[in-house]
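Retry 2 of 3 after timeout on previous attempt. Resubmitting structure tokens to design endpoint.
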């Protein structure tokens, strides 16, 4: 039997099939993965008031069990500088046609991660092999680029390193075209925290059907999971 971490236990108790973004990020944080500082709010006034406790620029995101791809639904607004802009962004987001028939649980207001390379780290449960961990390049373009590497869990540090080397776009992490190299170490660290011996998938794999950190933003200094989605097993 696995011990249920709080966000999973809460989602199970609420009979939810997936963790919402905030719960997903709490789960990642409990495994030592960096996530943006964030606040969940219910309306424009609360969002504006919450700005005081966060460092701009900020990102606003809709939280809805009915909206899987938030950007496609007008549910992500980046680069907000202050309370007035944040309040206006919430009001505009609420009016978006895609929100009309969706259940809205609130809005996540969070600090922006420093610019970097967008990587995807994921996990899924294979009926035969158990948990698999995946890394890919491309963030929003991951499906288009299809540049991914998979391993059966648990992975070692060497596996994590080989997964990165396997990517066709591996050079992007090393700083192609005059760009600064970003931290491969930070990506490997996240891969181990997800797919390593004591990682998320090895310890909670019976509850997690699908894990998706998309994107993990990797800069020179580290990696931050700015989006998180977990689908629970039935
Ligand atoms: P979705 O995948 O549901 O459309 P995301 O939460 O992944 O929504 O946000 C879409 C894009 O916005 C991300 O791929 C990333 O480029 C950017 N973004 C989101 N949150 C942050 C953040 N905290 N810091 C920097 N960029 C962000
Ligand atoms: Mg995303």
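Retry 2 succeeded. Sequence:
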């Amino acid at each position: 039997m696995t011990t249920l971490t709080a966000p999973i236990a809460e989602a199970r108790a609420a009979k939810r099939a997936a963790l919402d973004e905030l719960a997903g990020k709490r789960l990642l944080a409990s495994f030592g993965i960096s996530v943006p500082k964030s606040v969940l709010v219910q309306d424009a006034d609360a969002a504006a008031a919450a700005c005081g406790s966060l460092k701009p620029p900020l990102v606003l995101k809709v939280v809805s069990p009915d909206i899987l791809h938030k950007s496609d639904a007008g549910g992500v607004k980046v680069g907000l500088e202050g309370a007035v802009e944040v309040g206006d962004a919430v009001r505009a987001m609420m009016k978006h046609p895609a929100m009309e028939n969706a259940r809205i649980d609130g809005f996540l207001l969070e600090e922006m991660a420093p610019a970097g390379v967008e990587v995807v780290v994921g996990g899924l449960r294979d009926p035969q092999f158990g948990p698999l961990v995946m890394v890919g390049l491309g963030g929003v373009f991951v499906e288009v680029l299809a540049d991914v590497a998979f391993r059966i869990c648990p992975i070692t540090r060497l596996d994590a390193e080989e997964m990165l080397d396997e990517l066709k776009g591996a050079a992007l992490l090393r700083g192609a075209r005059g760009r600064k190299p970003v931290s491969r170490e930070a990506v490997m660290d996240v891969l181990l925290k997800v797919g390593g011996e004591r990682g998320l998938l090895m310890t909670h794999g019976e509850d997690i059907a699908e894990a998706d950190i998309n994107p993990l933003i990797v800069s020179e200094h580290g990696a931050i999971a700015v989006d998180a989605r977990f689908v629970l097993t039935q």
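Attempt log closed. The domain at 37-111 is CATH 3.30.1490.20 (Dna Ligase; domain 1).
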